Amino acid sequence: MRRLTQINHLDAQPSDIEFSVVGKSHKHESADKQVSGKALFVDDYPTPSNCLHAAVIVSNIAKGKIESTDFTQVESSSGVIKLITVDDIPGLNDIGPIFKGDPLLSDGTIKYHQQPIALVLARSHRQAWQAASKAKLTYQSETPNLSFEQAQQQPHLLPKNQFGASVDLDSLIESAVVVKGELEVGGQEHFYLEGQISLAQTTEDGGIFIRCSSQHPTEVQTLVAEVLDISFNKVTVDMRRMGGGFGGKESQAAQWACLASLGAHLTKGSVKLRLPRKIDMSATGKRHPFFNSYHIGANKHGVIEKAHIEVNGLCGHSADLSGAIVDRAMFHSDNAYSLGDASIVGNRLRTDTVSHTAFRGFGGPQGMITIERAIQDLSIKTGQDAYSLRLKNLYREGRSTTPYGMEVDQCDMLLEVMQNLEKSSDYTNRRAEIKQWNNSNLVLKKGLALSPVKFGIAFTATHLNQAGALVHVYTDGSVQVSHGGTEMGQGLHTKVAQIVAQTFGIPLDLVHVSSTRTDKVPNTSPTAASSGTDLNGMAAHNAAIAIKNRLLEFAKEHYNLDAEPIIVNGRFETKDQPVDWTHLVQQAYLKRISLSSSGFYKTPKIWFDIDKSVGRPFFYFSIGASCSEVTVDTLTGEMQVDRVDILHDVGNSLNPAIDIGQIEGAFIQGMGWVTNEELVWNKDGVLLSNSPMNYKIPSIGDYPKQMNITLMDKANPEHSIYRSKAVGEPPFMHAISLWCAIYDAVASISQHREIPNLQVPATGENILQACLAQFDAIGYTRDEAEVDNETIG
Amino acid sequence: MLEIMINEEVIEIEYAAPSTMLLSYLRDQLGLTGSKEGCASGDCGACTVIMIDLHAHSGLRFSQINACITPLNALHAKHIVTVEHLNKNGALHPVQQLVVDKHGSQCGFCTPGIIMSLYALSKRQGNTDKPEDFLAGNLCRCTGYGPLIDAAKEIAGVQYYDPTLADEAAVTAWLSSCNAQTTHNYLKPTNRKQLAEARRAMPKASFIAGGTDLALEITQQLSDIEQIIDISQVDDLLSITELDHGWRIGAAVPLNQVHTFMREHFPSTDELISRLGSLTIRNRATLGGSLGHASPIGDIAPLLISLNGEIEVDDGETKRRHAPHEYITGYRQTLLEKQQWISGVYIPRLGKNQRHAIYKVSKRFEDDIATVVMAFNFRFDTQSRIESCSIAGGGIAAKSTRLSELEAHMLGKPFTQALVREVKALAALHIHPLSDVRGSANYRVSLVQNLIQRFYFECNNIPTRLSDHA
Questions:
Q1: Of B132, B141, B363, Cβ closest to residue A700
Q2: pTM of the model
Q3: Per-residue pLDDT tens digits for A661-671
Q4: Tell me: the pLDDT tens digits for A623-656?
Q5: Which residue from A217, A705, B63, B396 could staple onto A237, CB 3.0 to 4.6 Å apart?
Q6: A-chain residues within 8 Å CB-CB of B139?
């Protein structure tokens, strides 16, 4: 560099610079580009010349062996360049992220319907997929195991584990009130709007440069290297943004990245692989379906004294992340309640489907909804309002230890959140009004529920709780940040930019967060477990602090100051006149001060003893409560959401607009999970709900008629980044109050005397069944009611 | 030769294969990658663009359409506006700025489509009672829609300076001066005679009007359809005509126009039609298309059956009318012969002593295929007895059907709860639906029974519908 850029923008409008960068509702860093169609996704980048397009030939059966393959029509199809099978893989064919068992291409054994068998490379996307459909395959087919009952008979994928000493089930009989039941919890399709996609290019060193829509670039890097049998340092993953991830691109973006890389490697060129929506929905894993059981004993006041809960995750054909997902279901089987003597058992069952994977909440929702269902049942058994039962059973002084031995530090906060929401939602009055309303309505019935969420923050695999960042300050004063987290819409880059600007004491527009690249920050963890900001924000903060300390030390000496200067709004005071940031940076550069630093962070305090199943797996808990009101049509099972109130704790909010956006989006996604998003497989293991034509995520008309979201906005007692709390997953589980409200509406048919057999998702069909069962149980047929023998004229 | 104005540029295309969709042309040929492919089936709306054409009375007409399922050849002499055009001068368009200010984008993949639907809303003259309906065809998996509903409410009916249309006069001039389309393998007749000739010239060609169903063969089954006859400009298929006893609706009138007409003359059909696809789909889809495909759960067939409507088919020489339940002969099978096309639909007026209702139950309220559709049309005599009745169902058999056993049982009797009870029991004996991804056979039987009950309740002014209660 020969000259230093003259900068004047800081002097132009100094009064416009915000005093504090963190805590303000700055727009998403890409918002302007997104609304203009200029934000680039992998499919939008210009392709390299002669880029080939890949398609996969997939299995038409769910289980068995390939008997014969005939690819002649594939290879002679228009535009086809190459066909690749398992025999062409130079390195490993197994891309299991933690445990082995995930073949990149079938080695002859078929483990699930639509399993990739071969890769076709053609001149165009359409040609490739047209050709792939022409494969002639014969199979030795076996009957797939799909149901919970079938899966129970098979060896489990992973060993079972248990929290707490086994509770003697017979002793529960002595409890004043016993609640026993089973809950079928359905899975969920991610339905990220941008499907799985990768664009791989070979490099001059025989390596791979890959753009990939992935939450875990490091894992993509290592798996690509292992598949191609090259060293990690030859593979670079660049990830600017995803069009949604929600967990579906944590481990399961890798297969498509590896296939694109394999194609590029074998042709020494470039290959793009983009999954059509139906293939994406059929060939990638989903939220785990669970079959859970609960057996709970309470005293006559409804205080839970003993509990035995069993959660059974249906994992699909391989372990993928199922070990940790079922763990998290177990960790959240208490939700916010002290269960007394509790044993919690987790099983990981093998089924002959796609391998189910991470999805926002990561097993937490499936665990949590089970105990909430049990509380609803308890409410019916005791004749008490479910809200007052919930209050009684919250973790509290003297009853604050979880079944896995971790203390709940913020018991007071749990109670405060519940009581504040009870007031602001006018719960008590509405409860009375609804009772009256239901008595005067023959067909439509309303339901109401107010329930808490307590969600543990940290990866339960302790080693993943680390992050790195790289911060450069350039001589025009601008700052570039790279970190290990990926942007999938959650506003991570916006928050990290705010954190770095706040840390330096400079305006936000000086900070740019670049794409996530494995050559900038290595050995990263997935952007998952809501930890993106906690980990990467702190790592970026640490990097900025390192540079800032050098600058301040220099400034103190250079300007002959008595104390360290305080940089605010991009300037600091000296004895003579204020000095602006860019000037400081330029002076430091001339004096050969390093303006770049990496930063590292590891979450403190956490540990877990796997053998004893005790420890502190979480740094802290995210806390909140929600209150939902619904109306159910007892003739058709249709349902409408009338009002939702959410009070949620994000610690000090780093960006209230983004936090509220996360809460609202998570709730609606959770609403889909508990209502209409139903995965249907037929007996052959074929996913029938395989397109947006037959799998319905919420659309705009499903939005609640009234929605109130409030942030608790109290500092996190733990030393998290600027005392904020994670927000990505926890609010998903506020939708459980919506499910409980449906339960409440259905139970009102029997005046809350009969437990409704409501499952998850509570589809129209399930709701109608539950309503009909209520009518049966009370021996009342509605058509004998009010209107008999009336006629119309 | 095909001429399309895309943003500011008039593009002349010598030949485009009939199966080329607008979206792939925009993205792959023009490098306009703002419009996204989320599903390639018109379900997600990430590809939404604006189609502007010239309407005889109202001038420039803005319709949001799904680029993923609109054949390029269908767009001759139309102006297409994509998201890139809105801020052509660098500054954000007011609609774009609004979405930024509302924090209405997260991952951003659906956002360009959202912007275009909001833009279509902003061009709608006059009041729009439910502005968020313009976004019913845009799925968003991140935001939960709250900020987008706010944005829709704020932009609806507001007058603002639209920098995009600075040169409206030039656009109008171009639209009105385009030559006729001359494309090989894609014929676009404008009258009956030409249509019959086109049919003779290309006997194997597929008919297309809006293409919202046919296009799926191209984008989902990956078929290369070689020849297409586009009937969307045939004058005989495009008008709604009042007759002595009712109306004739042209088979190619887009459903959004049919909706406006039906809302006025058959208000009992309003909810059903507003739930038929999304507004984006209704801008292209037609009555003829729905009936032509004879889906067992098509909402239109039960609607038409219950209104005692008729389907008009034409071969250029003779027009014939069929009752819809006779016209549809089986699963996706009809009486239509190869040289024929559906030209129109006749619907008689409802009498004062007639009560009509049509109910749709689907997993999702908007833009979903019905699990069951039930339609009722009862006429009562002076003694409140059922003088005639029509009970039609979709989703309960291989084709949309009349439940004649039920009808026969009710004729001449007073409409009482006792009768409803008998008919519900009868229904369980006479219908044998399938179980599928949308619901089990048992659920469908229960729905049929309970919708009969609902009709009875509604006739007695007992509230039963979620959409009606506050």
A1: B132
A2: 0.97
A3: 999 999 999 99
A4: 999 999 999 999 999 999 999 999 999 999 999 9
A5: A217
A6: 191, 193, 692, 697, 699
Interface of B with A in 421-440 (CB under 8 A): 421, 424, 436-440
Interatomic CA distance for residues A442 and A440, integer angstroms: 7
Phi, psi of A11 (to 5 degrees): -80, -20
In terms of domains, do A788 and A668 share one? yes
Among candidates A743, A748, A735, which has minimal Cα distance to A759?
A743
Out of A489, A696, A787, closest to residue B106 by CB: A489
**Span B378-383, mean pLDDT?**
93
Q: Is B418 on the interface with A (CB under 8 A)?
A: yes
So what's the ipTM on this one?
Answer: 0.97
- Report, as residue numbers or ranges, the catalytic residues of A: 729
Both A197 and A336 in a single domain? no
CB B458 within 8 A of CB B464: yes
Q: Do B450 and A636 touch (CB under 8 A)?
A: yes
Q: Do B417 and A789 touch (CB under 8 A)?
A: yes
How many degrees, rounded to 5, is the angle at CA B86 between CA B80 and CA B90? 140
Tell me the residue length of chain A.
793
Give the domain-ending residue among A264, A283, A302: A283
Does residue B78 belong to any structural domain of this protein? yes
Is the pLDDT reported for residue A24 higher than 80? yes
- The alpha carbon of residue B288 is apart from the nearest alpha carbon of chain A, in Å, by 21
Of B100, B135, B380, the CB nearest to A31: B100
Say yes or no: B369 contacts chain A, CB-CB below 8 A.
yes
Residue A713 confidence (pLDDT) above 90: no
Instruction: Assess whether A725 and A780 both reside in one domain.
Output: yes
Which domain does A593 fall in, by range?
Answer: 466-602
**By percentage, how much of chain B surpasses pLDDT 90?**
83
Q: What is the CATH number of the domain that holds A708?
A: 3.30.365.10
Find which of A359, A434, A636, A681 to mutate to test the B interface (most B CBs within 10 Å of its CB): A636
| Per-residue pLDDT, B164 | 85
Domain boundary residue, one of B126, B149, B183: B183
Number of domains in chain A: 3
Mean per-residue pLDDT for A46-74? 97
Nearest to B44 among A193, A242, A278 (CB): A193
| CA distance linking residue B108 with residue A661, whole number of Å | 13
Domain finish residue from A557, A573, A602: A602
Which CATH number characterizes residue B448's domain?
3.30.390.50
Shared-domain flag, residues A625 and A709: yes
Chain B interface mutation, best of A28, A34, A676, highest count of B Cβ atoms under 10 Å: A34
Q: Do B92 and A30 touch (CB under 8 A)?
A: no
A739 CB contacts (<8 Å, ≥6 apart)? A369, A372, A674, A675, A758, A760, A762
The pLDDT tens digits for B106-155 are 999 999 999 999 999 999 877 778 899 999 999 999 999 999 999 999 99
Q: How far apart are CA A54 and CA A48, in angstroms?
A: 14
| Domain assignment of residue A3, yes or no | no
Cβ contact A631:A433 at 8 Å: no
Task: Please choose, from the candidates A165, A188, A186, A177, the residue with its C-alpha nearest in 3D space to the C-alpha of residue A374.
Answer: A177
pLDDT at A17 over 50: no
Kindly report which listed range (A128-132, A466-470, B395-399, B403-407) carries the lowest average pLDDT score.
B395-399
Find the mean pLDDT for residues A716-744: 97
- pLDDT value, residue A8: 43
Burial of B127 (0-12, 13-18, 19+ CB in 10 A): exposed
Same domain, A75 and A208: yes
Q: Is B27 a residue whose pLDDT tops 90?
A: yes
Domain-located, residue A13: no
Instruction: Tell me the shortest Cα–Cα distance from B199 to chain A, in angstroms.
Output: 29
A630, part of any domain: yes
Residue ending a domain, among B135, B157, B183, is B183
H or E element at residue A677: none
Q: Has residue A534 been placed in a domain?
A: yes
Q: Is B158 exposed, middle or buried (0-12, 13-18, 19+ CB in 10 A)?
A: exposed
Domain that holds residue B381: 354-460
Domain count, chain B: 2
**Closest chain B residue to the Cα of A274, Cα to Cα:** B37
The CATH number given to whatever domain includes residue B7 is: 3.10.20.30
Q: Are residues A311 and A412 in the same domain?
A: yes
In the predicted structure, residue A13 carries a pLDDT above the cut 70: no
Distance, CA of A787 to CA of B3 (rounded, Å): 63
